[in-house]
Design goal:
- The chain contains 6 helices and no strands.
- Helix content is 82%, strand content 0%.
- The protein has a single domain, classed as Tetratricopeptide repeat domain (Serine Threonine Protein Phosphatase 5, Tetratricopeptide repeat, Alpha Horseshoe).
- The protein is mainly alpha-helical.
Length: 103
């Protein structure tokens, strides 16, 4: 919880910091609060669709919550963004997760 409180303090100072928001979302996942994480992930991607690392985590969260179609959507959007950015590592990671889900 101490880590969460520290990240929240950082967000007060810089509320649109993608890195800090992403880190906070991951902390929420660790403590079993997927809805709080989801809101943060969605906010990041709504503001900055090029923040590629968030696509995998949001899609995986949705997959774990049983929202398969929405997870597929986010994996696909993430692959598009990764391809646009030339980020082959992220593309391959997203594609592997996507294929595991749809096969």
């Amino acid at each position: 919880m101490e880590r969460i409180e520290k990240l929240k303090e950082f967000l007060v100072a810089s509320p649109k910091d993608n890195f800090v928001q992403h880190a906070l979302a991951l902390e929420y996942l660790k403590i079993g609060e997927p809805q709080k994480a989801r809101l943060l992930f969605e906010e990041i991607l709504g503001r900055d669709p090029a923040y590629i690392g968030t696509y995998y985590h949001l899609a995986r969260l949705l997959e774990n919550e049983g929202e398969r179609e929405l997870a597929v959507h986010w994996y696909q959007k993430g692959m598009e963004q990764a391809r646009r950015a030339g980020d082959n590592h992220a593309f391959n990671e997203l594609q592997a997760a996507y294929e595991d889900l749809v096969d």
